[in-house]
Amino acid sequence: MRILVVEQRQNFNDDLVNFLRASGHQVENAYDGLIGLNLAVTGCFDALVVGTGVPRMDGYQLCRSLLKYSKSKISIVMIGAHDSLAERIAGFELGIDDFVTMPCAFSEILARLRAVFFRKTR
């Protein structure tokens, strides 16, 4: 799977990228929403992992723009720092595929990525 990770917390971002690469996936990353959106639009990714609070364009704005203007069938897993029902609902109303609340295991993120990718490609 080709995965784009857009998350502002550098250590978390870097560790997740390393985990996904070690699991056999091709991964690129960004630390802010504008760069992430540019990569998502110009790249050919199967899945996007995006934090809700990325700077310059938050995760919700990034997903809204990507889903509105891109013909891509990218699977989206959003990561939120708070277990907030309102945050999860806002993401699902935009069209994301899944939502993970921090703290979470990288293996859970990967399992969710695989599940949403499988559903979109069957």
Automatic annotation (TrEMBL):
GO biological process, one term: regulation of DNA-templated transcription
Keywords of the record: DNA-binding, Transcription, Transcription regulation, Two-component regulatory system
PROSITE patterns per record: RESPONSE_REGULATORY
Domain Response regulatory residue range list: 2-117
A cellular component term, taken from the record's GO annotations: protein-DNA complex
Highest taxon, organism lineage: Bacteria
Protein name, per record: Two component transcriptional regulator
